[in-house]
Amino acid sequence: MKRPNCTVVGSIRDDSAPGVSELKDSPKGDGSQLLLVKIESSKPSDAKKAVEEIEAAGIDHIDILIANAGVSPPIEPIETVDLSVVTSTFNINALGPLALYQACYSLLKKSSNPKFVPITSAAGTIGGMEHGRTFVAPSYCISKAALNWITLYVHRRVLSLTKTGQS
Q: Residue 67 class from Cβ within 10 Å (0-12 exposed, 13-18 middle, 19+ buried)?
């Protein structure tokens, strides 16, 4: 983060986790700042609280929103996969990024060129399922397929409207 005049907002799950203090103390470019906010992707309310902290710090827009939370449970056949594992994985991998996007939408709309960049996976592609043998990890693949849908919708419909001034 040595670029000048940049603000980076990062999310952490635990302020006392290893590496957090080093991250806080890392060198920054002139006029740059790092703001760390707590977001646990399995808790949709965390994203809203984080946006409140961001706005309280004087940040009035977001240019690039990267949703990088994810979990990959053990590989199990779809015939025996525990539905609670599917649900938990879906909540973190698909609904977590959606909750983050929803919470940040008003700040993204204020950017002249907003970008939503969720970290997804080819494992979520229906067309590549046979080729990539992604059918062996149903919990993960189902959640990433949903995230791919959310991403495409946001890119095609929502963010394109913000660029044209419609909302």
A: buried
Alpha carbon distance 164, 167 (integer Å):
9
pLDDT tens-digit map of 60-103: 999 999 999 899 999 999 999 999 999 999 999 999 999 999 99
Q: Which residues are within 8 A (CB) of 80 and not within 5 positions of it... i.e. 6 or more apart?
A: none
Write out pLDDT tens, residues 127-153. 777 776 667 789 999 999 999 999 999
7 has which bridge partners? 33
Exactly one of 38, 49, 101, 144 is catalytic; name it: 144
For the full predicted model, state whether its pTM sits above 0.85: yes
Known catalytic membership, residue 163? no
- Considering 28, 49, 101, 140, which one is annotated as catalytic? 140
Is 57 within 8 Å of 35 (Cβ atoms)? Answer: yes
Instruction: Enter the tokens of residue 66.
Output: 């990267």
Active site residue 144: yes
The structural domains of the chain, ordered by start, are: 39-163 (3.40.50.720)
List Cβ neighbours of 14 (8 Å cut-off, separation of 6 or more).
20
Q: Which residues of 106-142 are buried (b: 16+ CB within 10 A; e: fewer)?
A: ebbbebeebebebebbebbbeeeeeeeebeebbbbbb
